[in-house]
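Running log. JK asked me to keep both predictions on one page so they can be read side by side. First protein, sequence followed by its tokens:
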Amino acid sequence: MSGTVDTIPWDQAATMIDLEGRAPIIGTIRDCAMHFALYKPHARDNARVLLTVPVHRAGRRTRTWILEPDEIAVLTERLQRETN
């Protein structure tokens, strides 16, 4: 999973959505990762990122447009590694 998520460029346009209907965050993958890092656990469980370029995932035949919370967490960890 992290192999494909790690290749998403930080400046790729993306939208963070919330399954509970809060206002979306429209920006870049980097913006979404930064906001996700600030979320409380409940909000993290309900967050998804809508991509502008689909990514491959292990075990799936087609590319997908949405990142799940565990994949967004990988991006957040990558951001922390790269900024330290």
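And the second, directly underneath as requested:
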Amino acid sequence: MHGLLEILRGAQTQTGGVFVLSALLIIGFVLIARRIGPESPLAPHILPFAGIMIVVPATMFLGITKVIDSNAVSAILASIVAYFFASRTPQPPSN
């Protein structure tokens, strides 16, 4: 219980909040990804989503600690969004 209180107390800072949010994103992704079987239509997309789930929290953490500036954070997030939309192939209309 003492460890949980320390995490909650540390989450009130910017860096701690980003750390807790990052941990929740990664844990949530792992829990969801474990349920997706090979026959699922989402199976081919697990690896790109795994990369995004690592890059986005790392970018948030590096941005909040001022290791990289806000322009670099914006560029990284924009490239992730561009990749996400460019990698989706349109389905041909069914007749």
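Observation for JK regarding the second prediction: The chain has a mean pLDDT of 81.
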